[in-house]
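SAMPLE LOG
Freezer: B-3
Tube label: C17
Construct: single chain, 484 aa
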Amino acid sequence: MTRLITTLLLLGSLFHPAHATLTGSSIAGETAITFTTSTDETAEAWRGVLTVPENRSQADSRQIELHYVRFAATGEKPGSPIIYLAGGPGGSGIMTAQYTRRFPLFMAMREFGDVIAFDQRGTGDANTLPSCTSSVVMSATSVLSDVEHAHEQRKALTECVSFWKDADIDVRGYTTTESVQDLEALRQHLGATKISLWGISYGSHLALAALKTIESSIDRVILASVEGLDQTIKLPFETDAYFARLQAAVNQDPDMKAAFPDLVAMIRRVHDQLETKPLTLALPQKDSSSTDLTFQRLHMQQLSSYMIADPGRALQLLMLYSAVDQGITEPLAGVVSRVFEPGQAISFNPMSVLMDIASGIDPKREAVIMRQAQTSLLGTMLNDSIHLNAVLPEIDLGAEFRRKPVSAVPALILTGTLDGRTYPIEQADAVSGLSQVTTVIIENAGHNLFMVSDEVTEVIQEFMRGESVTRTRLSVPMPAMPSF
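STRUCTURE (predicted):
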């Protein structure tokens, strides 16, 4: 299934990307480069590579390459290298610096040490794994039950696992524990006594696992939109609580409140309508033709799961619900055509799906999730990988992996109140074992929160300087009402 890509907000005028002169000595295997972003901003940097085993538990494991870009420190007293850990799983650290508006923050972080845009195993420049397109095609015109949908997903993944094994890929090597050891290998490669970790979403998941395993190698951590080690699959009732927070934010604007007086009731009406009578949408194609899709309740839940990460998209989603509630389908068809591909076979990115399955879920939490899904707004569609774990039970890392870290490493936690992917109460629980933690709540911020305000950057700077962070609650404006 296609993932909806969200766009980050521009930092603004606080920092201007520097055309810095390359400083510092190269490390074995590094090459001097001029790093250029998608908007033609540049910085001198080092491009590096290191080789690690694909599966460290196998003595004869094949070797794989990990790639990174190192921006040399600019501060007078640089500290430990700062390693950026992208989300996903499957995000590329190098591409984050290159293709998002987060580049100014990468440049600003050089005050505190070398900044490493790191491609985790199986991502970006480090990805030599073939994606798999199965032979399983979801019918574009048939109505599928949730059970049938899950069955087709498992069938497709089973086929893809065989495909990867036939390609001599060790599927047991794509786990968070292997990625933690990659971080330790990177630290040694850089010749650093310690490293600092800067991660978001799945990147925070990886950082939390590192705190349990290589704590003595970690200087400090900055984590945004935290995903706990037992939180790969989200609690459906916490998604419902997110919609309640979104309603409270909407109510602060008279026009929005008038448009969405009871968004939960509206969502349930639309779901009930689509369950009883699915829509036939003519989805526009690039060649000016159209393709029909029988759009049903589970499609709307999937679309919601893609769009609730950040409040701007969430408001667009509410407008789609409102349109369908009023019998207007044209805006829906336009958005759905960019997310769904009717008639396309089910495909999987190996790193993404294997990492999630390996992190897994404990039986008790799974039972709670399946019980909550029966009545919650989005069911299991926010994380439908819960249905895939049974395909590869042998790579599950187990309950001990999912136990919360206990650590005294200084940690800065950044949490958005309108994050529709990782939720404030779960984030707080995920880091409850950290004894030197500073949490900053950003009112009205979503999942991708680094660039929503200059104040977020200032807080990060205070933390990295070892100063006391006194601004523990920030606020950013709600996005304006969107239009189609």
